[in-house]
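Q: Sequence in, structure out?
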Amino acid sequence: MKYDFDEIIPRKGTDSLKWDFTEDSEVLPLWVADMDFRTAAPVVDALMKRVQHGIFGYAMFPDAYYAAIDSWFSRRYGFSVKKEWILYANSVVPALSAIIRALTEPGDRVIVQSPVYNCFYRNIGLNECETVSNNLIYDNGLYTIDFDGLERIAADPRTKLMLLCNPHNPAGRVWTKKELTRMGEICIRNQVTVVSDEIHCDIVFPEHQHIPFASLSEDFLLHSVTCTSPSKTFNLASLHVSNTFVADAALRAKVERAFHQNGIAEANAFAIDGLIAAYNKGEDWLQQLLVYLRDNYLALTDFFVQNFPQLYVLPLEATYLPWVDCAALPCSPSELAQTLLEKAKVRFNPGLMYGKNGENFLRINIACPRAVLMEGLDRFRNCVLSL
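A: Exactly. Output:
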């Protein structure tokens, strides 16, 4: 089936966080990480079948649910996931919060690699832990890992967890086997459990290959927790479906208890049917999506080369969220983002929300029809030139 990603599907007035955050109908939202594309037809068909049944009582997880997860990760990443490892949660963000609660005590230290997904900071703080950032090294337009810094931080006995963003949001990096191996060796040697957020694992472009952290060795598998979801891949955030893989039985018991304590482990019939359809029948849609997103990224980079060569769009290895270095502008990107919203009617994410070392950047969501993206970029150009 050929999918039309150029189709503009009105979302205003659908209680969309992305589109209905303001009553101003003129604002183009190129910010929060959801897509303006209708999901794969098999997913829609499965949900319609559930709706037409007309009974929405309590649900349970069939074997087909676990089989679909294992099949997806086995064929795409060579990583077989056993049924008993899989813990359902209604979203990755509350799952991360519950995992932190399960595996730390108040006052413990949790490593992040800034700039990084803003909810990491919030979840660590809500669990009364200390965020300690091993800042990524930004050099010549590319982010790499400060392994010496990671070694120092991990050696502190108060450090219990590392939240790994794999692939990385907002830097757009796909960590290599060598990088993941060195991170894992440092953490295991210092008894630091790695919690790998792999929600963007499927939005990876052909030159790169996502490697599940837990797939690298038996040691890595037993000293890690992996958070996954089809929500970014298939635009299913509101179905509230995520899966956490925990191979070590003792570790899994702690995480499972925390999920139930936080009330995030109850089955959702639509989530079950949606995931099974997506993982079993949605791969063709995903492959077409990746081609379209790549072309959107190329259109965006060409726009900046032609109009603002002093600004730099970082290489996008994964996600649909390009990270743009705006250090050459005379105003701060945070101020610019507010001006763009108020005067140009276009919303981007200011980089400061991902950590202080993200303050010179903007994050732009390109998961929309190309006409919408180009309209947003035209508004950006006109606003910046007027300043």
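The first strand starts at residue 28 and ends at 29.
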